Amino acid sequence: MAASATADPTGDVPVIPHWIDGGEYAPDGTRTAPVFNPATGRVSAEVALADEQTIERAIASARRGFEVWSRYSVARRQSVLFAFRELLNARKPELARIITAEHGKVVSDAMGEILRGQEVVELATGFPHLIKGAFSENASTGIDVYSIKQPLGIVGIVSPFNFPAMVPMWFFPVALAAGNAVVLKPSEKDPSAALWLARLWQEAGLPDGAFTVLQGDKLAVDGLLESPDVSSISFVGSTPIAQYIYETASRHGKRVQALGGAKNHMLVLPDADLDLVADQAVNAGYGAAGERCMAISVVLAVEPVADALIEKIRDRIAALRVGDGSAETEPDMGPLISRAHRDKVAEYVDIAEADGARIVVDGRRFSVAGHEDGFFFGPTLIDGIPTSSRAYQEEIFGPVLAVVRVATFDEGVALINSGRFGNGTAIFTNDGGAARRFQNEVEVGMIGINVPIPVPVAYHSFGGWKQSLFGDAKAYGVHGFEFFTREKAVTSRWLDPATRGASEHGGINL
Ligand code: NAD
């Protein structure tokens, strides 16, 4: 994690503040970390990193925000959500540019992530139906039993760099709709999107304190994990940190959902249309420079199709344009998030090569003219990687696609199931029976059938299995509403007015 910053050698850069109590906050002398434009490799800003006092201030403001927001009527809360949806829909191109400037992905891809987040906002506008309780009349003679759903209080969200708008939007529309106050700790690598969203909430009419952005690093995260005032944590990021969050938040008595890393396989049966498969593999492997938790990183080719498929993927890679994601003529793929991450991706390709793989297309010494200091890594294709290699087993999170040859469908499924992750997977075939067996036997949370990146729509829920999700609640959909509410069951008996009560006071004419 980035430590305190060195300033941009070319001059002063702005400080990206927190959003606390309905306004920007960045105390003098605050610790900061550099924020880069990955396409140029230059520092574009410094982000404030919360210390203990700032964490306390944020939580105190959220407590006040909760007191106000949770008492808004359902109809009034709904009108704020509708206003937010309209503002977001109208202004999303502005947000997309902010994302591209700090993350590096191409603008149309940034628009795509906002749209997927907006779907959850739209789901959340229908929240009254999803948070209403249930009623059982006369459960026993004269006794009614009913349940009501209430908010948790202050809920923490800790998000990764790769979807600075969409991932927070997997959680906060639902959390707010249910009446909670949100404290969002965005990634310190691309912190501006969260701030933009905070301003939008204010404009939509959300009361101050109900949505807080706490910028920072481990200190800020630990502050949320340990605070007795924070009721739950929704985390998305790498598996080791997800596990840490799950264990620490649980130890502090919190409700927790922690989504981790991935290594997604695409199984290609010999009957599949190989042109379609090659198109989809290139989109799913190299889109957003492979920095998607649902990116495909392994193509499992059931022989004899591997050689033909490698040729088709190689041809398509040759036509890919890599460059500055904000360029007027939009490229297909932008840079990686940081220099350190680019070096790590290159290291994995070195490992694959040392373990005996053939590097069919090598992106290691790739650069973009005019952007020599940008964090670019060329699309890379690997053949014949041994499944014992760390480069096969671990998440690379870059534009690196490996083709692994298997003899049968069963061998392919067994290989997928032997992995430690279980986020997404896909099968490409025209055989309905094979697809049906695949969905039944594969130990993965999200499955695509001739769909390479099967991110569920907002009214289903998003989440993997195994080390891709710690906890038992997925993001958004019905799972989301269950996570962000707690239920009370009321057992009630009112005496019949004939026995006692209102009639004595003349209220009811019996
Ligand atoms: P990361 O784990 O490094 O960071 C995620 C968040 O945790 C950030 O806000 C960061 O500040 C914080 N953090 C980092 N180290 C910490 C520590 N030691 N203690 C407390 N907090 C800490 O992840 P990243 O590099 O930002 O994102 C990429 C990862 O996220 C990939 O592994 C990717 O697969 C995963 N991801 C998963 C999903 C999913 O749905 N399963 C979605 C998106 C991204």
UniProtKB/TrEMBL annotation:
Principal EC category: oxidoreductase
InterPro entries, A to Z: Ald_DH/histidinol_DH, Ald_DH_C, Ald_DH_CS_CYS, Ald_DH_N, Aldehyde_DH_dom, MeMal-semiAld_DH
Gene3D superfamilies: Aldehyde Dehydrogenase, Chain A, domain 1, Aldehyde Dehydrogenase, Chain A, domain 2
Keyword field: NAD, Oxidoreductase
SUPFAM superfamilies: ALDH-like
EC number, as in UniProt: 1.2.1.27
Record-linked PANTHER family: MALONATE-SEMIALDEHYDE DEHYDROGENASE
The name this protein goes by in its record: methylmalonate-semialdehyde dehydrogenase (CoA acylating)
Domain Aldehyde dehydrogenase: 30-490
Keyword rRNA-binding: no
UniProt xrefs under Pfam families: Aldedh (PF00171)
Single GO molecular function: oxidoreductase activity
Source superkingdom: Bacteria
